[in-house]
Amino acid sequence: MNHRHSRIVFVSLLATAAAVPSAAVCAQTAQTASSPPPSAQTDTAPDQGLQEIVVTAEKRSTNLQRTPIAVTALTSDTLAKAQVRTLIDIQTLVPNFQMGQNSGYAQITLRGIGISNFVPTAEGAVAVNVNEAYVSRPIAQLSGIYDIGSIEVLRGPQGTLYGRNATAGSVNITTARPTNDWSGYGRATIGNFSAVNVEGAVGGPIVDDKILFRVAGFVDRHSGYGRNLVTGNDVEDKNARGVRGTLVITPVSGLKATVIGEYYKENERSAAQHYFGAAGLSGLSGSTGQPPVFVQQGGYAPTGLQDIANVRDPKFRLRTASATGIVEWTSGPVSLKSVTGYRDQNSLTFESIGAGSNVDAFYIAGEPAHQFSQELQAHYDTSRLHATAGLYYFKEYDASIPGAVAFPGRLLDPILGLPPRSPDYLVDGEIGGSIRTTAKAAFAQASYEIVDRLTFTVGIRVSSERKKALLYNRFDFFTPYISNSPYHNDTPLPAPTPEGPKTFKSTTPKLGIQYQLSRSTLAYASYSKGFKSGGFDVTTIAPAFEPEKLTDYEGGIKTTLLDNRLRLRAAVQKSATVAAE
Q1: Would you give the distance in Å from CA 60 to the centre of its chain?
Q2: How far is CA 312 from the centre of its chain?
Q3: What is the pLDDT of residues 183-217, one digit of tens each?
Q4: Residue 193's closest CA among 128, 131, 270, 285?
Q5: Which of 105, 282, 337, 547 could serve as 534's disulfide partner, Cβ 3.0–4.6 Å?
């Protein structure tokens, strides 16, 4: 069965550099202590109004005002001034971009389209790429933002050049690169709730013009915004840190290799479920008219929205490690690029779900995962023709282990018509599994200026994804929950149920036309498709769900006015999404 819906979105973005700089479009000169980024660069002489912004949204460097895509570019200086520490903080800088988190999982939405689930193994509709390598896991997309060269947010399906899970758009993050001059910076911020944020970087040449390096790191901490009234401990605190090393080697002219390694760790009492009132007494349709069970049994709930009253404290832990290798070769109009990425992670989410002070019920889940990706690109650029072609390979293991729900058996006994069990014990429910994904794709896109100022673009991507799963699902009202440590499930797992393999194939084209009305004004229109693969839901045992597909029609105009002091970008967009069950 197919479900289809359409929407129209109007977008406009305005900035005046001379009087009121806008963080979303006006790129300020980078701090002298920080290296210039490889994308979203700025280049304008003093007193000439707005600076030119160079982006890599089409996998090549182009002027933002002459790029026929709805894209917002944020430079390192913009991010520093806005005190951006995670992707959530760019919401006020990027139109149509919303982001939050639930249980530590990122929920990114572009133009109203985003992730619909927040459990391990779920995938979003907005691709996040760090240094051109895709970050598959939503829980890893909330790691710290520090020492960044640029962030580019592409709105609309990017199914041709970016591929999997870019149905709504793409967020491309590029970290700062070392230069041939020694540079560095240090920044510290303190605030209420004992908040401390420290960030710094240093880099320069090991061998002039040949070998450059840069090291960056950060620490972000604050005490809890609330308190667990039962244990007396703070909750919703922050304790995150990360370090990154970058090495750039240029052995000969035209050949460059970049190696980036990064480690991130977070460990705190966060991701708590907060009590907002008794639905049973709300009078709404379907309400029971009875107070919550924990009240009936003599318990209490917090009155402060940031506080909780649970037998156990919440817990959130995340560790990620990544390595990215980029090799680039250029000779005249031809260039080749290889992007290799590896990511490894593990996480723990522990949430009390009893709401009240006397109900020891909780949910525990982990998400160990590792992924490998390889992309090969070939580019050909002349004054009129710009062509890109490539091959893509992706392999991932992702799991929800452990995944369990535990709650007192005495809560079930009245429902089952049984006498109260004595002694009471936690009843075990097992939910989870593992998913293995292999994705392959070939893509090509070319833009040709047929006559002066009139350019046509055509592109296509052919993709194939294969998935298989091992799923666990058991609710046994009489099996005790076993744990040998506070945040670990040691209950023997039931026999897994295999599902798949299942293969999903797609073809995502792009057609575009652009006309340079004048030196400062571009008009464009495009037709494109996006594809989000089907897969398996680890919260149930069921066959694979089908893919989500999106067709997008867009038209826009970009212009610079008032002697290069006012920049306007506007777009109108219509999309139709088809999700099959």
Answers
A1: 22
A2: 30
A3: 999 999 999 999 999 999 999 999 999 999 999 99
A4: 270
A5: 547
